[in-house]
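Risk mitigation, structural track. In case the binding assays with S-adenosylmethionine fail to produce interpretable data, a predicted complex structure has been prepared as a fallback.
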Amino acid sequence: MWDERYSVPEYVYGTEPNDFLAAHGTHLTGPVLSIAEGEGRNAVYLAGLGLEVVGVDSSRVGLAKAQALAAQRGVSIETRAADLASFEPEPGRYGAVVSIFAHLPSVIRNRLYPLLVRSLKPGGLFVLEAYTPAQLALATGGPKDEDMLMNSGKITAEFPGLKPLILRELGNLHYGRSAVVQFVGKKIP
Ligand SMILES: C[S@@+](CC[C@H](N)C(=O)[O-])C[C@H]1O[C@@H](n2cnc3c(N)ncnc32)[C@H](O)[C@@H]1O
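Fallback model:
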């Protein structure tokens, strides 16, 4: 499904980084693991800050576009084609983990999230932005399956090993706006 979506010349999500990530990028240390990286806008931005970046996604088409964007911008990124349902990040390797609109069913999150927290160095940061269930009433995209949508309560429950530095829900039911949850969590040493 994602390979098909990305099989167009343009970048479906653009080539500029996600705003929430860009607001916090300079606080991150590497290496950075970016899950569901897609076409590379966030990985390329982070590499441009001088950070080592590993972008994981199941879409080879998306990752090929990510590498093309990196080449065009003169930066280097590592991309790994993998299904997050079975992905095994290296323990204690990453200064930051980034999850931008990486909507996953709870059955995948329940296995993956503890592994992502384990993959952080002590003091490492987890940056996440995702749609909340309020997005279901809007016509601005996102999964239609509520299980894949996040909110503050799910984040608190699913990241017990992280201290929330930012945890907030934004957006409302005005047509055309998006409803998101934003999270920056720090791995407690
Ligand atoms: C909404 S896009 C977000 C892309 C990127 N994070 C961005 O902000 O531009 C969601 C991405 O999740 C990836 N994805 C969904 N399920 C996945 C899975 N089980 N394993 C790996 N990647 C997955 C898709 O291939 C797609 O690139």
